[in-house]
Design brief:
With about 240 residues, this protein is α+β, with helices and mostly antiparallel strands. It folds into two domains: about 5-160, no CATH class; about 175-230. It has seven helices and seven strands; from the N terminus they run ααβββαββββαααα. The strands form two sheets. Strands 1-2-3-4 form a four-stranded mixed beta sheet. A three-stranded antiparallel beta sheet has the order 5-6-7. Strand 2 (about 45-55) and strand 3 form a beta hairpin. Helix 5 (about 175-190) packs across helix 6 and helix 5 packs across helix 7. The longest helix is centred in the last third of the chain and has 20 residues, at about 210-230. It starts with 6 loop residues before the first helix and ends in a 9-residue tail after the last helix.
């Protein structure tokens, strides 16, 4: 399995993360930054959907692509070794590390995170999440929440197959045109005149899940289906 990005996409995301990094957090920021009390997560081949809960039922929802999520995990792990967070309780060994799965019903409110900076103390992580356009938000994650976040990133990454054995992100292979034609032919054999509608449905489902790669993939399949059906004299429906 792989991420939902090509190698060029991963290179662009990494470049954006480095070039648009927000200011490093300071001790003054620590005094004014809200502290997360709990977290929940979900994810896909493209990244992590993270909900942070604060006091008074306030929450923050972040859509973190797999490049940034990997850097965040490594940053938390580095802080954990520096401040010996793992000595008494390894990540995933505490009850609070078992983060609940966040519902994606309201993920349209999420901030798309393309870059971040972190600072750490014995008590936890101060993180600045940036959208790549000079807008950012901050949150302080106590070490129990930070530990759980490591678990959530690893869970999503292993489920999606983001990494190789050395935590390198694995790019998706772009299908050749002949493979797109075969997929289109299979849809037509299975769904007949509804094949274009099926490709449309799968494309829209992918974009709703934040999976731009498979959205584009099913767009290509729809185009191939439309071409085959037009040749055969069957109508097709435009894809969104």
């Amino acid at each position: 399995m792989t991420t939902g990005y090509t190698q060029a996409d991963l290179d662009d995301l990494h470049r954006l993360m480095m070039d648009r990094a927000p200011p490093l957090p300071t001790l003054e920021d620590l005094n004014t930054t809200p502290t997360a009390t709990a977290a929940a997560f979900n994810g896909s081949h493209t990244g992590l959907l993270l909900q942070l809960q604060f006091l008074a039922d306030q929450c923050m929802v972040l859509n973190i692509n797999c490049v940034v999520a990997t850097e965040l995990m490594l940053g938390i792990n580095e802080a954990a070794f520096k401040y010996k967070w793992w000595d008494k309780m390894p990540a995933g060994g505490a009850e609070e590390d078992a983060l609940p799965i966040y519902s994606t019903d309201h993920d349209d409110s999420a901030l798309a995170v393309f870059t971040l900076t972190t600072g750490a103390s014995n008590e936890g992580m101060l993180i600045t999440f940036g959208d790549g356009n000079n807008a950012y938000v901050r949150a302080f994650l106590p070490r129990s929440v930070a530990r759980g976040l490591v678990v959530s990133i690893i869970t999503v990454a292993e489920r999606g197959g983001w990494w190789d054995d050395e935590f390198g992100l694995v790019p998706v292979r772009v299908p050749e045109e002949i493979e797109i034609q075969r997929a289109a032919n299979q849809l037509i054999k299975r769904y007949g005149g509804r094949a274009a509608w099926e490709a449309t449905f799968r494309s829209n489902a992918a974009i709703e899940a934040g999976d731009t790669f498979n959205h584009q993939l099913w767009q290509r399949v729809w185009q191939a289906v439309s071409g085959m059906q037009s040749t055969a004299g069957e109508p097709s429906k435009s894809i969104n």
